[in-house]
Structure formats: C-alpha cells, structure tokens
Amino acid sequence: MQAALLSRQRLDLPDNLSARRIYTQVSVIRKVIITAVVIIATGSVLMLFDPVRQFGTSILASAGIAGIVIGFAAQRTLGNVLAGIQIALTQPLLIDDIVVVEGEFGQIEEITLTYVTVRTWDLRRVILPITYFVEKPFQNWSRVSTDLLGAVVLYLDYQAPIGELRKGLKRLVENNPKWDRKVCGLQVTDTKQSTIEVRALVSSTDAGILSDLRCDVREGLIEFLCRNYPESLPRQRTVSEAPDEEIRHRQKSKSASSAQGREHERGPKAPGIHGESEGDGAGR
C-alpha cells in the first residue's frame, strides 16, 4: 500500500512540494500504525494465557494509579509521539526541506515519532527531538517553494563603476546554467568610511545550486574588477605629516622669505630706506 501511494511521487523534481508532503505524512502515519499494532498484538497474545489474565484481573483495581504513574514516567515519550503526529498533520517541515537549526544549515533527512535527522552541508547528521520543531523557532527555506534568493556582498572603493558592474553581473549569470533567469540585480546597500557595500542578488531553484551560483558570481565579479577596474578594489588611504620642529622651521623660512620680498618691492625710494645717503648728497 505504501509503495502504491509513493510510486507516483518523485522527490528528484525541482517542484516536489506535493511529493514531500505525501512522503512525510505516509512516513509518520506508518510509524504510528506499526506502534499501535505491536501494542495491541502484544496485549492480545498475553491475554491468551491464564496466568497473565488472572494477574491482569487482580491488578485491575489499581489500574488507575498505575496509569497515572506510567503517564508521569512516560511524559516526555508521549509528548514526542504527540508532537510527531502534530507535525505530520500541520506539516511545518517536510522530508527534504532546507532548514537552519541551532546555527546549522541542512536538509531534513528523516522524521520519526521521536526525533528528526538533519543532514548538514558537510554531510554531518544533527539529531534533534521532534518536540524541538514544535517548541522552538527555526528557519525553513523551502516551506512553500524551493526557489531561493542569494546575496553576494562586496566592499569596494568609492570609484567603483556600478553601471559596468551591473552589466558584468548580467553577463555572468546569463552564461551560468545554475541561474533560473528570475532575479538578477546589483545595488549599493551601505557606505562605510573608506568603502561602499555592494550587494548582488541572484536566484536559483535549489539551496545547493544557489550556494554554487553565489560562489561563481563572487569569483566572477572579483575577476572582472581586477582585470578591468583594479582601482575599484578597497584601498587604505594614509596622510603623512611632518614633525612639529620641521613644520615650525618651514613657517619661519616662509615668514623670512615674505619679509624679504616685501622689502624688495618697496625699493630704494621707499620711505625709511637709504635716508643717510640722501642726506649726504643734499649737503654736497
């Protein structure tokens, strides 16, 4: 029956949201049915034996107290089972969903009644209790669709040619099969003291493909700037000043030169210049 339900569902298609929903529901419901059948079958077999039946009859009066004790002892286990059923019905996450939990980026690999397995990008497995996804917030990047946007941030000099950079980005993604031909843009999103923040935004159909596309765009833009506009790369500007003594010496030299220049402009006919010589000439 399970094979018949899943035979028409394919998880390898780009738009596989419906298939992932069915896989998740069938997986959880199957585990619930198996657990219930095992418990009922075990109880039915035990009741076939007289000693067990008599034992059950003798403790029937204390069944209420035993049930309370068992309920307290298995509180967390029952909570996990109920959380698993809740997730199967409400479907906040599905098999193959792209999620970020506890700072880890990964993909939902398995959903059981008690735990969820997340496969990270470096093929590690993060095991989380299923109640985690009911009680704590988490990021689900493929909740509605697998289409995603990715940003590439560069810090450039104020002389960077933004228009040419936009054209270069367009040429990069048009020749890249990882781009889904939906979103491609470049904007200056912030200015710093010595650099500007430039963000390139691109889209793709899958988180893994998007990660590769972002790397391609980052490498391509850096290569484009290094080859055509090297002056656009970040640079550190420094201003060197002379020591105080040298500055004072320059100021004195400049003042002396200015005084000499003014005296030269006044010439020998200026008042107060060569007064004695003129007096001697008049006496003769």
Count helical runs.
Answer: 10
Q: Strand order within the widest sheet?
A: 4-3-2-1-5
From the alpha carbons, calculate the radius of gyration and give it in angstroms. Answer: 40 Å
Largest sheet: 5 strands, antiparallel
> For the residues shown, what is the average pLDDT?
76
Helix content: 40-55%
- What is the 3D shape? elongated
The residue ranges in which pLDDT falls below 50 over 5 or more consecutive positions are: 273-284
Distance between the termini: 141 Å
E-strand count: 8
β-strand percent reads 15-25%
Structural class: alpha+beta
Number of domains: 2
Q: How would you spell out the order of helices and strands?
A: HHHHHEEEEHEEHEEHHH
What does this protein look like?
The protein is an alpha+beta fold. It has 2 domains: 139 residues, no CATH class; 85 residues, Alpha-Beta Plaits. The protein is built from 10 helices and 8 strands. Strands 4-3-2-1-5 form a 5-stranded antiparallel sheet. It has a 3-stranded antiparallel sheet with strand order 6-8-7, with helices on one face. Helix 2 runs antiparallel to helix 5 and helix 7 crosses helix 8. The termini are far apart.
